[in-house]
Amino acid sequence: MILAFRTAQDVEAAIPVAVRHLKSERLLAYPTETVYGLGSIATEPALSALARLKGRPPSKPFLVLVSSRDMAEKSGLVFSHAASVLAEEFWPGPLTLVLPGGEGRLPDTLRGPERGIAVRLTSHAGIHRLITALGEPLTSTSANRPGERPAPGADRIAVAFGPEIARGDLLVLDGGVLGNVPPSTLVDLTAPLPRLIREGAIPRAELRRRAGRLAP
After folding, report:
1. For domain 2-182, which CATH number applies: 3.40.50.620, 3.90.870.10, 3.40.50.300, 3.50.30.60?
2. Cis before 92 (ω within 30)
3. pLDDT in tens, the chain (216 residues)
4. Pairwise CA distance, residues 50 & 139, whole Å
5. Residue 151: which of 128, 174, 125, 119 has the closest Cα?
6. Could you tell me which residues come within 8 angstroms of residue 65 by beta carbon, excluding any fewer than 6 positions away?
7. What is the spatial distance between Cα 91 and Cα 185, in angstroms, rounded to a whole number?
8. CB within 8 Å of 56: residues ≥ 6 apart
């Protein structure tokens, strides 16, 4: 199924359907402030299904999107002083922070090599509302098959994942065609000193201009 997700009315109508779909541990394709994402709720069965859909090895984790810092903290994620400053300056927005914590509340399969979990507070208004209604984090990875470019819109997602959509395993939220936006900037905050893993939509210079010595 593909649902319109462009106007406020579209979002209002789609959210209950998307929440029910996600709560049944099925998968979602959706627009973000950067690229279209594929995601699920953060349970082991849903993550396994997402890894199979993506064609991704279990050793490569997914990030999670939240609708508030409070949601991240209720998931057990820990904010250092540097993480707090970066979140205050750049959230909501395209900055992903790799944070320690989450033991017993989020699956360990979400942990990267730093043993942290990557999290972002999305600035996409419709997805922010969806996650708030969901009441828990939404996992995220770019909407593409291995080796292909992320899909810019729902039509390309339908081509790439047609069988999964037809079976009802994948629900698509059509937010229109997205621009050529880089992925989120990724900062590791699991060690005493912040470390830039990926320079994306927010350049390193902007991180340093606004967060000073607490930026990587």
Report:
1. 3.90.870.10
2. yes
3. 999 999 999 999 999 999 999 999 999 999 998 889 999 999 999 999 999 998 887 678 899 999 999 999 999 999 999 999 999 999 999 999 999 999 999 999 999 888 999 999 999 999 999 999 999 999 999 998 888 888 889 999 999 999 999 999 999 999 999 877 888 999 999 999 999 999 999 999 999 999 999 999
4. 9
5. 174
6. 32, 37, 39, 119, 120, 121, 122, 127, 131, 137, 138, 139, 140
7. 12
8. 50, 141, 146
The secondary structure of 118-170, three-state, reads EEEECCCHHHHHHHHHHCCCEEEEECCCCCCCCCCCHHHHHHHCHHHHHHCCE
Which candidate, 47, 49, 42, places its Cα nearest to that of 106? Answer: 42
Tokens coding 177? 């065609």
Length of the chain: 216
Q: Tokens 């979140």 — which residue?
A: 87
Strands 2-4 and 170-174 come out as: parallel
pTM of the model: 0.93
